[in-house]
Amino acid sequence: MFGVDSFRVCLKTPQVTKPFFSIKFTPDDQGVRLPLFGESVQAGFPSPADDWLEDSIDLNQHLVKNPAATFLMRIAGDSMKDAGILHGDVVAVDRSLEAKPGRIVVASVGGEFTIKRLSRLRGKLWLMPENPDYQPIEITDDLEVVTVGVVVSVLRQL
Question: Residue 6, exposed/middle/buried by CB under 10 A (0-12, 13-18, 19+)?
Answer without folding.
Answer: exposed
